[in-house]
């Protein structure tokens, strides 16, 4: 494991005061590790001190809720296409199911578009716009009158919201005091909320307002899938409007400093401190004395300049061997969990059916009831993960290892399911373990990315996750859904990335993100 002095995060004892923290910075060990921009490292340290001095306020709590709502919206939009797919096929008499693949293609492109743009034009614009546009296009999906139009707006809605997940955690993290950094793990709780809400809505509408056969399926008798889109879109739009009108989001001070806007960063922090009657001793002179950063040099506002700046941000993710190893493990882990989750949620029912497992009476009502139970249980995964990270010598890495290994065990045991109660029990506990890992990975990734390229790093991680979603149908097809090959792939991936978590070079439980 790499020496702790090599990390590009600033080590800090949660019980030390600001003065002792500053003394620990003076030894230079942490600055040397960044290997990219010592001046920016110094400025980030001062910004972190100021945020710690202000502490956790209602402003951070509001961002926690609004960013969490983005998590919820992302999980809703990811789940809707597969949830209503069979009923859309009945509506338009199409046998080839492409809705899920189209959705993942949109999420893939959206992660690149919004995540990278957040490092170019700012966190605030991308944070607010992505959710609003995603909700708007989702409304249109529910009202489409042809299958091609349905797929076009399905793609656009996912394109709009595709990078939201990376932006949510980045925005929240960059305003967060160190002592409350653990709440980034807890935030994944909102993902489970979105899934549960989506399945509940499907359970409410699909059994009552859906056709059972394509032979007699007029639109008037098959409006359930439209209601699912409309209601979920309305919930997403409520969250989007709350971002515009209920909270005036400040541009994150770390983004401002990374773009040579020191004066704006200081003003931002002082506005928050003044509003909530908190101290903030940071001055513009302190940042100026650090020198001039070299991380974000001046680039021309042209296509060529934009591409150069994107390449520059990507290079910031690989400044040295230790950080490069961390970035590689992050990307591979997102790919691995994408394979695991996709196979688990889409493939296992076919496997059980081929083995004669009587896990359902075949009714739409029971199917969505069982899914609701399993998705509700997964809410507690991130809560358990948030508790595990406080156990000495466990932290983020140990929590991911525990979640990954337990997920592997229960996935392999899942093949013994033969009855409906067993199916509900095993699917619930498997979801729970996967979300222990998933919730911690969500928080860990932006924590170990440099702020100047945090949007880019988190978005590329999402791209690997979406790429895995596109590959899952191929694995299921060529692995044969009646064989055990896909389930071994599924369990092996989650086990491997769980073990790899132990080798991650950084442990944010005792370090501040830069």
From TrEMBL:
Entry annotated with the keyword Transport: yes
Major location (coarse): membrane
Annotated Gene Ontology cellular component terms: membrane
A Gene Ontology molecular function term of the record: transmembrane transporter activity
One Pfam family from the record: Sugar_tr
Membrane spanning residue stretches: 102-122, 129-149, 188-207, 227-246, 331-352, 372-391, 398-417, 423-444, 456-479, 485-506
InterPro entries: MFS_dom, MFS_sugar_transport-like, MFS_trans_sf
PANTHER family: MAJOR FACILITATOR SUPERFAMILY (MFS) PROFILE DOMAIN-CONTAINING PROTEIN, SYNAPTIC VESICLE GLYCOPROTEIN 2
Protein name in the entry: Major facilitator superfamily (MFS) profile domain-containing protein
Organism: Kuraishia capsulata CBS 1993
């Amino acid at each position: 494991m790499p020496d702790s002095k090599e990390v590009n995060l600033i080590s800090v004892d949660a019980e030390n005061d600001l003065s002792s923290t500053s003394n620990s910075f003076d030894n230079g060990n942490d600055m040397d590790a960044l290997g990219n921009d010592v001046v920016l490292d110094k400025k980030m340290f001062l910004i972190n001190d100021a945020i710690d001095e202000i502490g956790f306020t209602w402003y951070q709590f509001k961002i926690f809720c609004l960013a969490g709502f983005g998590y919820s919206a992302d999980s809703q939009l990811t789940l809707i296409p597969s949830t209503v797919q069979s009923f859309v096929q009945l509506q338009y008499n199409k046998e080839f199911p492409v809705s899920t693949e189209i959705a993942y293609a949109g999420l893939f492109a959206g992660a690149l578009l919004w995540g990278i743009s957040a490092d170019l034009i700012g966190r605030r614009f991308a944070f607010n716009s992505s959710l609003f546009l995603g909700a708007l296009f989702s409304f249109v999906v529910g009202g489409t009158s042809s299958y091609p139009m349905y797929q076009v707006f399905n793609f656009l809605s996912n394109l709009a919201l595709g990078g939201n997940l990376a932006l949510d955690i980045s925005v929240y993290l960059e305003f967060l005091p160190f002592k409350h950094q653990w709440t980034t793990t807890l935030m994944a709780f909102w993902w489970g909320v979105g899934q549960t809400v989506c399945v509940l809505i499907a359970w409410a509408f699909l059994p009552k307002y859906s056709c059972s056969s394509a032979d007699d399926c007029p639109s008037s008798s098959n409006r359930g899938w439209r209601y699912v889109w409309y209601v979920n879109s309305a919930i997403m739009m409520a969250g989007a409007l709350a971002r515009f009108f209920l909270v005036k989001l400040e541009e994150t001070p770390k983004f401002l400093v990374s773009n040579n806007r020191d004066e704006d960063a200081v003003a931002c922090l002082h506005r928050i401190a003044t509003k909530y009657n908190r101290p903030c001793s940071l001055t513009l002179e302190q940042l100026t004395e650090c020198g001039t950063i070299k991380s974000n040099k001046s680039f021309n506002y042209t296509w060529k300049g934009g591409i150069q700046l994107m390449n520059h941000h990507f290079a910031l993710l690989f400044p040295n061997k230790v950080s490069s190893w961390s970035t590689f493990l992050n990307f591979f882990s997102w790919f691995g969990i994408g394979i695991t989750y996709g196979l688990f949620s889409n493939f296992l029912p076919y496997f059980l059916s081929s083995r004669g497992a009587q896990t359902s009476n075949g009714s739409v009502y029971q199917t969505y009831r069982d899914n609701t139970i399993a998705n509700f249980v997964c809410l507690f995964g991130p809560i358990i993960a948030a508790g595990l990270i406080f156990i000495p010598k466990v932290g983020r890495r140990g929590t991911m290892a525990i979640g990954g290994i337990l997920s592997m065990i229960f996935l392999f045991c899942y093949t013994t399911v033969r009855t409906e109660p067993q199916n509900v029990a095993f699917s619930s506990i498997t979801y729970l373990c996967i979300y222990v890992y998933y919730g911690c990975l969500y928080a860990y990734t932006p924590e170990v990315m440099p702020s100047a390229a945090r949007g880019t790093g988190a978005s590329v991680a999402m791209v690997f996750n979406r790429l895995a979603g596109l590959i899952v149908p191929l694995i299921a097809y060529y692995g044969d859904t009646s064989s055990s090959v896909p389930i071994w792939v599924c369990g092996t991936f989650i086990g491997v990335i769980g073990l790899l978590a132990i080798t991650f070079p950084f442990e944010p439980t005792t370090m501040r993100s830069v």
